[in-house]
Queue: 3 jobs
Job 1
Amino acid sequence: MNEVLILTNEEFILFKSDHSKNVIMRQQLRRFVNQLNSRHSHLSDWHVNVSEKLISRHIIESNYQQKLEFDFELMKKGMRCDECDGWLGTTRKYSRKNLYCLSCESKVDLETAVLKCINEYQLLFPKRKITVNTIFEWSGECVSCHMIRKVLNKYYIPVGTTKGKYYLPID
């Protein structure tokens, strides 16, 4: 048998292939494997050496799947503007329902900003618990704990009581 290209992606469609006999689509894979299994052949030392090399080079964990770890204490805290990537805050203009970018002065809804902050924290630190104090610190302390608690109670499931209370996403 000659070289064969096996395409395993079920969403892939190959149009106008000149080498259609050498291309095996996902739907044809079971028939192809059955044909291979039905053939009787003699395995030489070369076959054994090739299989040993393949087994020895087997990669258990891909380099592309490595997870980055971030140190909460070393990272700069605060909320970023979607428009200009500046920092959000309340020093230039104050409002109970909005934050303003300190660079471009664009207005951001406070609840939306807090949710974005929580999602960012959750993405960067999936193993850490979501608490009012950690989100307060992660937000750069520009949103009140009362507002953070209000958003967490609205969109997350509280676990525990006063001390040690943390929140889980509603999935």
Job 2
Amino acid sequence: MKALIVYAHPREEGLNKGILETVVKTLKKQGHEVTVRDLYRMNFDPVLSGEDTIHIEEGHFVREKETYPKDVEIEQQYILENDLLIYIFPIWWNSFPAILKGYIDRVFAYSFEDATVSKKFSGKKALFFSTTGQPQTPENEPDTVLTQAIKTTTSGWIFNANDTEVIDHIFYGRIPYLTDSDLENVLRDVENRIEALDKFL
């Protein structure tokens, strides 16, 4: 299996970096091919230009340009070539970091009337890991009101118009208040979840 990891955190250390390293190590240990796109290290341009936006003319979705910028084409090709799409990022102001939102704005800027889009995404799986300062999910409850809202507007929203299956969106909360032991447990949980992916693939 080929896995694409899109990673969005500006710091070189911290829990998000630990999650990234754990995911990469565990996937490779299982024999999977892994590609990491570290948006901050790439200095990815998150700004969607007017000519690349989708807008409506005479009742139809259109783009002024028939081709995409080279950096966007590169990212789109990575998506097409991989079976599993993994996104690792913190929740800031109840949403994506701006650089990841810009990545989505630009890389996913396809026409809603293009019937080939769903076919290109068909059969792919997606998995999301997010850290947050908010409390973790209460025991015996699937989500808090806030995490469910964030899922709807992030992981659920990205793939709601194509045939990619979102396996899960995992949240690790109260990050600033966790002990070293707690952080080790988070990374162990990440490892266990990656090891259990075979049943979804």
Job 3
Amino acid sequence: MNYQDILGRCSETTVSQLASTCPETLDVFRRYVPHIENHRLATVAMVASIANVDPGKLCQELFDTVMERTSIEELDTDVLLELILRGYDAAHLAKLPEIHRLARKIEAVHRANPDVPKGITLAVKKLERLLRDHIEKENTHVLNQMAHDQPPRPETPIAQMNEEHSIIKKQLKKLRDMTRNYRAPESACRSWRRFYHELKALDFRLSEQIYLERDVLFPRFQF
């Protein structure tokens, strides 16, 4: 998770908006702009410019402060939905084609190397297909129904989404087993190491997202 998942875009989120959700963020702003009360309508990026500080540094400090006061399990439903849709789904869909290309390249260039997992390209392609289908169905039939805390209709397939989560987790486990928990051999080239790094990061983010949906978000709508 990065700070934009929680704070929004630095160029759009204002001091007032952050203070309303976490008053302690005002203490962070005051370290850079003592009279921050006079700039409540300023965006985080504007405050960074006034203070002549890196916007990323300021955003990270604000993020740390917010997360110290609010656990992810306590986030509002709309914030969770935005985090899932923009912070997770969009990132997965952007990364999957690159990971698939790397898998195909490694399996083709190093096909004579016994350390290359046989069938890794097909395994990655299967994960990509499972995830794309799942995201499309989940966004259309589940998450959109939960916006603004609206209760899903009785036919909303939450149980089916959790079944698909289990299938995705099994495919992730298969990839972990095939790659020896994403440990590249000593002979691995830069692309091979990058492939394992990106795959491991995707595994972590997907597992994190499944936890948020299955154990935090979905129970709010199951009675």
